[in-house]
Amino acid sequence: MTSLNNILEKAYKEHNLSKEEILTLLNSDGKELYKLANKIRKENVGDGVHLRGLIEFSNICKSACKYCGLRSPNTKVERYRLEPDEIINYAKQGAELGYKTIVLQSGEDNYYDVDKMCDIIKGIKKLDVALTLSIGEKIYDEYKAYKDAGADRYLIRIETTDEELYKQMHPNMSLKNRKQCLYNIKSLGYEVGSGCLVGLPNQTIESLADDILFFKELDADMIGIGPFIPHPDTPLKSELNPKNFDMALKVMATVRLLLPDINIPATTAMETINPMGRIIALNSGANVVMPNILDTEHKKKYEIYPNKICLNEHSGKCRNCIEAKIKSIGRFVSETKGFHR
Ligand code: SAH
Predict the structure, then answer these.
(1) How would residue 1 be classed by pLDDT, with cut points 50, 70 and 90?
(2) Distance linking the first and last C-alpha atoms of the chain
(3) CB neighbours of 89 closer than 8 A, spacing ≥ 6?
């Protein structure tokens, strides 16, 4: 059995680990792992933190992912969708607040056909910002149209690489197709973002190690790791596990070891279950934060999980608040668009 220190030393030198070595890290208390992830972050991407302004433009969704509060069978959600001009206006507000990247996220909502999406993309790209899409599974031609219209990055979490668990969690979806989406996005020249949920019922630590190896093999540009948070109006409502935060942090830090110079967000879900979550994540390998720029009325309705942070805060206040937090740990807000390649 290789000792923890040997594994960390190997990771520092080679940025490669076996599944067994990853398991040793995930089963450790995390302290040394976080320290090394922070060092590798500093040496490879520096102290700048990239802020990405998030616009959750529709909570209408045709899917039924077991963990997600926006799943179509949930009739308790008040649904909304923003019109293209409203979305572009939010992006303008974001650009004025100094965000260099705008992220558009939504449920799987077919209202936005290729023409509408391309208009939105072109409108936002006039603002001299980088644009990330996080709007789910599409066919190759759609991804191509969005890229041609100017989108720079695409974010689609694999959620889990465990085939059986994937099937349990995602009715009428397939792991194979989700992977194909990622390969299509990559081949089209997008910067590719992915990630996984940590703490789903029946999820094993072995499968989390497989997720990490998948991100390495994909050679992702961005990886976001989120602790699973049970939503009361989903079938997984009673699956709360307080260990999810630590395990998510360990998965995130291990990703930093293997992919030393990619973008890694301190996720909102981490802050939701730990009031210091994003600062802890920024000190354990993360270099990105994604504050919300919606007004409070819409923010509240985009409830993928409960008790999301900053629901009553105005977007300008969020911007200042996060900057103060970043400065409090000796870091600074990056002035660049924060591309990986
Ligand atoms: N429809 C888009 C965007 C999904 S929402 C897509 O499929 O890509 C963005 C992310 O929220 C999901 O990828 C999922 O990982 C996360 N999420 C959903 N429900 C969650 C929950 N209950 N707890 C924590 N994260 C959740």
Answers:
(1) low
(2) 37
(3) none
**87: Cβ–Cβ under 8 A, 6 or more apart, which residues?**
55, 57, 104, 120, 123, 124
Crossing angle of helices 205-218 and 19-26, in 10° steps, is 120
- pLDDT (average), residues 101-121: 98
CA distances for 258 relative to 8, 44, 285, 287, 339, angstroms: 11, 12, 11, 15, 18
Kindly state the tokens that stand for 5. Answer: 């220190």
Nearest CA to ligand 1 atom 18: 68
The residue whose two tokens read 């922070």 is 38
The answer, yes or no, to whether residue 2 has pLDDT greater than 90, is: no
Give nearest CA residue, ligand 1 atom 12. Answer: 157
For residues 217 and 189, is the Cβ–Cβ distance under 8 A? Answer: no
- Check pLDDT > 70 for residue 109: yes
Q: Which atom, in ligand 1's list, is nearest to the CA of 157?
A: 13
Identify the residue whose C-alpha is closest to ligand 1 atom 2: 136
CATH classification for the domain delimited by 18-333, as one of 3.20.20.70, 3.10.410.10, 3.40.640.10, 3.50.30.10: 3.20.20.70
- Decide: 134 in ligand 1 pocket, CB within 6 A: yes
> Is the distance from CB of 222 to CB of 252 less than 8 angstroms?
no
**Ligand 1 and 154: CB distance under 6 A:** no
Q: Which atom of ligand 1 is nearest to the CA of 197?
A: 15
Question: Exposed/middle/buried for 108, CB within 10 Å: 0-12, 13-18, 19+?
Answer: middle
Mutation test residue for ligand 1: of 54, 58, 67, 138, the one with most atoms within 8 Å of CB: 67
Longest dimension (CA), the chain: 59
- The domains of the chain are located at 18-333
pTM, to two decimals = 0.98
* pLDDT on residue 184: 98
CA distance linking residue 272 with residue 196, whole number of Å: 17
How many whole angstroms from 68 Cα to the centroid of ligand 1?
6
